[in-house]
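SUBJECT: protein chain
CONTENTS: sequence, structure tokens:
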Amino acid sequence: MRKLISTTIILVAFLQLSIAQRTKEVINTKLFTDTPILFNPTDYPNGVVNKDDITYLGNGRIALKRIEIPNFTNFTKAEIKVTLVSNGDPWDKSGSCFVIPAGSGINMIDIAADRAVYPQQDTARYEQLKGIVKGNNYNPTVELMRFMTPFGVGHFSDDDDSTSAKRRPVYVDGWAKEVVWTQDITDLITILENGAYIGVFIDTWTPEGYVVDVELNFTESALNCDPRPNIHVESLINTNYYIGQRHPDIFSRQDVVIPFNIPENAKNVRLKYIATGHGGHSGGDEFHPQKNILSIDGEEILNFTPWRTDCASFRRFNPTSGVWLRKRPMAFIGRGGKREVKEIEEPLASSDLSRSNWCPGSDITPEEINLQGIKPGNHTLTISIPESTPISDNKLNHWLVSAYLVWEE
């Protein structure tokens, strides 16, 4: 028995050492620390504003930083981590952490500085939506992570806060102090190289805004027989309205068709697709389940309804969410263990409501479609959201979608 225990200990130690030898130390790159994202035209005027090593655009709603990452030769896993707190903005807002491809001769910094304009596009195909698809010397921005800010996390999270203390339901034992999201971005390492710009955009319209931290974590294999594949990233579309762009309600009028080319040497081709519906009024695209249909060369590859029904699970991140009272019969255990039913008024928060692929306080995971068998040559991707509705007055219905291809070369 002693011999068996000893052998087991040696085996466990060997396995632990083997795992350690296969994995190098994690390299952590902190891009943004306590960085404000806000709307303040006085301190962040139109154009490009540089503060320390951060470039601000859009009156402070976009923060950018140029990065240099190590030259990884072995297989490397990459992860992005975003931490957010409200700095006084009580609302839920769309957000995007993105990378500007180094190969794009025109980028949003040039646009903000009036050094360039978005390339001309076929208006019959893309209407007046500038910069959403590839053009002359321009590649659409690639999203590293789409997220949605919760209502007031952090700034309004004190239990004695006059705004939020009385809104906390009994099942939440305390408001969260921050919200943290992580996603695997291993497929995107290639476009982080060669001095790329990484940015954070939040669609805030308050001078308080938010405070964010963003970091990248890289874990490289220590085995020289485990080489890093050369992955190409091909940006297809991004309808986020970063700089000089409009709310995209184009899907309410037509399908969007994007041409692309697959080279001869492409292997393991995959499509990544991110979609969220917006329009916060009753019956708006935010609150109306709608099919997203993707086709390549007329053949359907994805037909799904991007819809989240778990938003109530994010309640602790939403201290300033609006709350209504709803009457309903409630079964409960009364005195003496007797089961009873009586009518009660129960709180329902706006953050609890189901939405088009997002919740206040959630990130959005890309849909991945394996395009196994796709042939080299020219193709088209068609994106259809046939039930979406157009913008009307202050009813800002729109879909934020982005898509890109990855393949091994």
The chain has one domain: 24-408. Residues 7-20 have pLDDT under 50 and may be disordered. The first strand starts at residue 27 and ends at 37. The CA atoms of residues 207 and 396 lie 22 Å apart.
